[in-house]
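To whoever is on call:

I kicked off a structure prediction for a single chain this morning and the downstream step that reads the tokens threw a length-mismatch warning. I double-checked the sequence; it's 111 residues and nothing unusual in it as far as I can see. Pasting both halves so you can look.
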Amino acid sequence: MVFIRSLTLQPDLAVGRLLLREMGIASVMGALLGGALFAITYWWLGSFTISTILALAIIGTVYFSILVAVVLPITFLRLRFDPAIASGPLATVVRDLSSLCIYFAIAWSLL
């Protein structure tokens, strides 16, 4: 939502710089969430493999969510659609489906 507001106010926004900043924030969030999830699931289940799968899945999901939040509005703007449409149900569905795919891909590759 913040990106769409910035894009609306400044159509010539430096997307690369913004994406780099968002990826930095995603790195911190992913590390914190992944580390916490790893610790909790390892304590709860005692399985290093399952804890690793869950931690990597949450980190991958956080990164992909940032990409969706930036790429969808830019695509909609270039196609001359309202970029605010991309922040609603479409982005939610894309993020939900991608998070499941990321989780299953990591689980399949590690199991």
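Update from on-call: the warning came from a stale cache, not from the record. Cleared it. Sanity check on the structure: Residues 31 and 59 are 7 Å apart (CA to CA).
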